[in-house]
Automatic annotation (TrEMBL):
Keywords, sorted A to Z: NAD, Transferase
Family of the protein in this entry: Belongs to the KptA/TPT1 family.
Lineage: superkingdom: Bacteria
Gene coding for it: kptA
Keyword 4Fe-4S: no
GO biological process, one term: tRNA splicing, via endonucleolytic cleavage and ligation
Chain's role: Removes the 2'-phosphate from RNA via an intermediate in which the phosphate is ADP-ribosylated by NAD followed by a presumed transesterification to release the RNA and generate ADP-ribose 1''-2''-cyclic phosphate (APPR>P). May function as an ADP-ribosylase.
GO molecular function: NAD+ poly-ADP-ribosyltransferase activity; tRNA 2'-phosphotransferase activity
Originating species: Streptomyces glaucescens
Keyword NAD found: yes
Pfam families: PTS_2-RNA (PF01885)
Protein name, UniProt field: Probable RNA 2'-phosphotransferase
EC category name: transferase
E.C. number(s) listed in UniProt: 2.7.1.-
Amino acid sequence: MDERRTVKVSKYLSKHLRHQPERIGLKPDSGGWVEIDTLIAAAAAHGFRFTRAELDHVVATNDKRRFAVEGSRIRASQGHSIEVDLGLPVATPPPYLFHGTVAHSLDAIRAEGLRAMNRHDVHLSADRETAARVGARRGRPVVLTVDAGAMHRDGHEFRVSANGVWLTRVVPPPYLRFPEGH
């Protein structure tokens, strides 16, 4: 499977497992799971055909491990805008986590902190490099440091997804550190 096809299938899966399952007639369960055969058939019925082998390739090779397969079911690992309960237990975060963004968002972040926006949670990375890659999707990245240890001590809950993304509802401004010059 070539890289362009891999990306196309991955984006299709993300859109319909995270944000718009109803567009192709999918009804994920409360945990966001759908039957793989049902997904493949629904996609084909709506003009986008892919095979189980292609789906397995996308799941296996995605560097961000965006999807989880359990038996005959699949779901997105996190990032949903639809209502789901991923069943992730509360976890103790490392002392610092990181968030990639772009410069034009910094004024709002200084005023309001990091908010989930149209997702359920704020997504944080365990290392600067990953945060920089995430921020680079929207332009030149700016990596913020989150004092996750202090947040945890102050009662904020964290969860970590199967692919290592740290999730929390909000990061208030006092817990954020901005890089020099920003």
